Amino acid sequence: MKTRIRELRKVRKMSQEELALEVGTTRQTITSIEVEKYTASLVLAYKIAHYFELTIEDVFNFTDIE
Amino acid sequence: MKEFSDNIKKRIIAFKCMSFIATAVSIYDVFIGGGDFSDSMVGGVSLGTIIALGMLAVVQVIRLSRIITDEKQLKMLYNKQHDERLKEIRSKAGMPMIMIMSILMMIAGIVASSFNDVVFYTLFVAGALQLVIGASVKIYFLNKM
Question: Does residue B145 contact residue B85 with C-beta atoms inside 8 Å?
Answer without folding.
Answer: yes
